[in-house]
Amino acid sequence: QSALTQPASVSGSPGQWITISCTGTSSDIGGYNYVSWYQQHPGKAPKLMIYDVSNRPSGVSNRFSGSKSGNTASLTISGLQAEDEADYYCSSYTSSTTRVFGTGTKVTVL
Amino acid sequence: EVRLVESGGGLVQPGGSLRLSCAASGFIFSGYSMNWVRQAPGKGLEWVSYIRSSSSIIYYAESVKGRFTISRDNAKNSLYLQMNSLRDEDTAVYYCARDLDGYWGFDYWGQGTLVTVSS
Fold first, then answer.
1. Which residues pair with B39 in a beta bridge?
2. Which residue of A has its CA nearest to B65?
3. Which tens digit of pLDDT belongs to each residue from B52-86?
4. Is B112 at the interface with chain A, CB within 8 A?
5. Which residues 64-93 of B have a C-beta within 8 angstroms of A?
6. Distance in Å from the first CA to the final CA of chain B
């Protein structure tokens, strides 16, 4: 099972919005509504930001939103803030090994 | 407060073995499925293994199948990962992560324990 494909880096200015894509296949993202997103700051454990494609856990800012179209899932961060600078990973259920992560995206706030 | 605390990491030679533990507290451990996820230095996250709450269902990533064994002791609120035939590429921080109950995601993570495979 290959990792899901994410852009290596995405950047934006404070207050802007950015979108991170996560591309898979019909055996993972395209076949199930089981996509989650994680934020990871350097030296820290990952933090769940989105589950089941578009749901936010309690305590996660509503500036974070998720969606899916076909084999591609997306995480949008609106009103970009300095604290959003981190690595972001998507994850999906997959029919082959049940769980797979994306390659990861480094978000830089300019 | 939910807490997951990993232990057991360290330096091991190629071909060696190591057993990781994850001590859980702050929730009913026996009611949740659990996972091990690893992250090689400077690299991305890689899912390693999953175990259902009752241990009835277990999955492994292809990269560790046949070498790693996941287990749990619900009476001790603990998750384990027995790692045998270790390779250089197994060097990573290993996290235990709880499955979000009834939904898709890992909602709580430990701080991780570093495993270094080197001669």
1. B45, B93
2. A97
3. 999 999 999 999 999 999 999 999 999 999 999 99
4. yes
5. none
6. 40
CA dist B11 → B41, B45, B114, B115, B117 (Å) = 14, 21, 9, 6, 6
Tell me whether residues B103 and A97 touch, CB distance under 8 A: no
Q: What is the pLDDT of residue A96?
A: 79
Is A103 part of the contact surface with chain B (CB cutoff 8 Å)? yes
Residue A46 DSSP symbol = -
Sign of CA dihedral A77, A78, A80, A83: negative
Percent of chain B past pLDDT 90, that is, above it, reads: 96
Across the interface, whether the CB atoms of B105 and A91 are under 8 A apart is answered yes
Q: What is the pLDDT of residue A100?
A: 93
Q: pLDDT at residue A104 above 90? A: yes
